[in-house]
Amino acid sequence: MNRIFRALANYFIKGLLIVAPIGIAGFLIYWAVTTVDNALNVSSFFIIDPKTGKHMYIPGLGILTVVVFLLLAGVIVTNVITAPIKQWANRWINRLPLFKFLHSSIKDLTEAFVGDEKKFNEPVLVEVNEFGLMKIGFITQKDLTAIGLPGHVSVYLPASYSISGIVVIVSADKVKPIESKSAADMMKFAISGGVSGI
Question: Is-above-0.85 flag for pTM?
Fold first, then answer.
């Protein structure tokens, strides 16, 4: 009886290890997509069902609206908006303290992961102490002379199983570049607690 119970428990755990990551990832994607779709779906405001006379909800229209808007914004920024217009817009943004703070923070965060100026693209090992303890990080600034720290770099250290992390400032000679793996692999390795990405 114990043997059967152990076998069933073993099968259950193996099934859980296979299904849980897929299920949780699928649920999070579904939750994110449906939340954005519900929040930005314009069909419930403008489209009326001729049979019932009530507003009609069309699933997926919110996501489609976001995709079209982002594509149009990309086309306009690339082909229409010139440097003087960008400078004028930035001047207006800088006059609104709270909006400036939120805008610059979100802009820097998104540019850190996507775009032409990705920040987290230089994985490194940071020497933490004299016993050989090292942490995986990503160089965010190579020159800190502006704040009186020549020869130092700033490094972002991601936290495992979290979207958070910390920024540390260390001497450049305490940082060792990781050239054998991509930044994406090292980020996955760090966030997964060292169980994937290598």
Answer: no
Judging by DSSP bridges, how do beta strands 152-158 and 175-177 pair with one another? unpaired
Give the other-Cβ count within 10 Å of 106's Cβ.
10
pLDDT in tens, 98-120: 767 676 766 666 666 555 556 67
Q: Model confidence at 46, in pLDDT bands (50, 70, 90)?
A: low
CA dihedral (108, 112, 115, 117) positive or negative: positive
pLDDT in tens, 65-90: 878 887 887 777 777 666 676 777 77
CA dist list (Å): 145 to 133, 142, 149, 152, 156: 27, 9, 5, 8, 18
Which is it for strands 165-171 and 152-158: parallel, antiparallel or unpaired? antiparallel
> Dihedral sign, CA of 90, 106, 168, 187?
negative
pLDDT at 112 (0 to 100): 60
Instruction: Measure the CA–CA gap between 160 and 170, rounded to whole angstroms.
Output: 21
Pairing of strands 123-127, 152-158: unpaired
**Farthest-apart Cα atoms in the chain, separation:** 79
Residue 64: phi and psi, rounded to 5, are -60, -40
